[in-house]
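User: Can you write out an input/output pair for a complex, sequences first and structure second?

Assistant: Here is one pair. Inputs:
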Amino acid sequence: MAKKRKHRSGGLNTTYLTKMGAHNIIANRSMSFSSVSVLTACLLLIGVSVMILVNIQNLVKDVENQNVVVAFVKEGISDEEVAKVGTDLAAIPDVTNVEFVSKEAGYEEQLREFGVDENLFDDVIENPLPHSYRVSVSNLEQFQTTLAGIKAVPNVDAVRESQELVSQISTLQNSITAICIIIVAVLAVVSMFIISNTIRITMVSRKIDIQVMKSVGATNTFICWPFMIEGVIIGVISGVLAVILTFIVEKIEGGAMQSLLEMFGSEAISLTNYLPLLIVCYLVSGVFIGAFGSIVSISKYLKKEGSEANEML
Amino acid sequence: MIEFKNVSMKYKTNGAVALDNVNVKIDDGEFVFIVGASGAGKSSFLNVIMGQEKVDSGIVRVGPYNLASIRRRALPYLRRMLGIVFQDFRLIPKMTVYDNVAFALRVIGMGDKKITKRVRYVLKLVDLSDKANNFPHQLSQGERQRVAIARALVNNPAVIIADEPTGNLDPILSNDIMSLFDKINALGATVVVVTHDLELVHQFDHRIVTIENGRVVSDIPSKYKQAEDISLRFTAEKTEEVSEGSDESEEKGEQENG
């Protein structure tokens, strides 16, 4: 009677298996091409969505920085009390900057805005403006709370703010963020689904290979390895292609985005600013989706034997 | 080498009986034909040996493995002691003849030098040395089956299992393939061939196990084995007679002496 052979995972010829995985990409070139196309398209769409999101976030930040609440100080209070108002305002959460504007400076600025000669009314009317503070607010979502805090500061007489604009920007930011997140999530799910189907089709086309491997006593690691290598190579190729295509998209559509952002007084963030991050994201996503997708699909099949395995394909 | 004890099994898909209380023992170096009509349970018998199907009851032993309790991780090692030949050859189309055969050795992590030596030897054995660099589509049906046999043999397995190996071949090629199995058996391997081709089976002198509706309905030893058994029985009877005769004469002698 034959002796029971020791179960050893040793002797796994990784060089041969890696070569086999690379060779399979060329041997199954039509399947590889479709996998690369699908993965590149998905990565590109995800990348473009992220690009839009980054720029919109930047735009909102710019608008936020421009968003200033003017707090007028009561008349007839001492200089110390005026300074105390500034300190109190700066202590409010979400207030990023407090700038003092004297009643004279405010008056001159107001006249300038109206396009009137600053000396024209010198003898006619007295400066009606009190001292004021320009208060920059960062978190638009908490704007109402911050505004209430500003109004509650002692010796603040009145407050001027563009609440409607604030509310519009806040809504716009939330909507765009939500839309982009939904787009990225949907695309990620869609790409996973398409990739897993592509891998499943690949497995059907390689059913005989897998059955032969099993019949000659291949371990699951041996069977998985070439598929994993294929997934990694497909992921890397797709990642590189997605980076190149993102550059092309930026060249073609970047101008349109720049003009759009300029309308809001902002400017597009250049792709080169976040290129290393983008490359890493693309490659990691590509390799992860490709390799992990392969392993998950094939593992499901390898857990089954005989007729159950055949039914899966 | 292979033993089925009270083995019963139902198909997972439709619950029909595949094997019904099967008892078969195949010794080392035996050549056994498993015959029966389509759906009789022949392939289920082989699938159980290959660890592709689990039995519902009974004991199945293949070499040192008890298949009723075998773990999934041990299956590749069970299969390495079996050489499996399929009706549809199952060659990898994008690999040459050499690579198809060498593949079974790469799976077990053998070095390239040993692989070359061993593959050359088995290709010579199946008379395909000159086709080593051909792809399967460049071969005839008979040649493809010989490549499949070479792949099954290359790992020097203890048992060769063939599922309808001549199903896609004409009678002359079928005979050639069966003769090749005969040659392999003569080299010491246990051979189990499943077939429904009774005409072919009767051209060879080997044990025939017939399965019908999942049951073993007959188990006929080879004529050589029958003759051997008869000869053994005859020798045993003769020995018995001789010993009885000598006992009698001894008794007579004792009586006479007494």
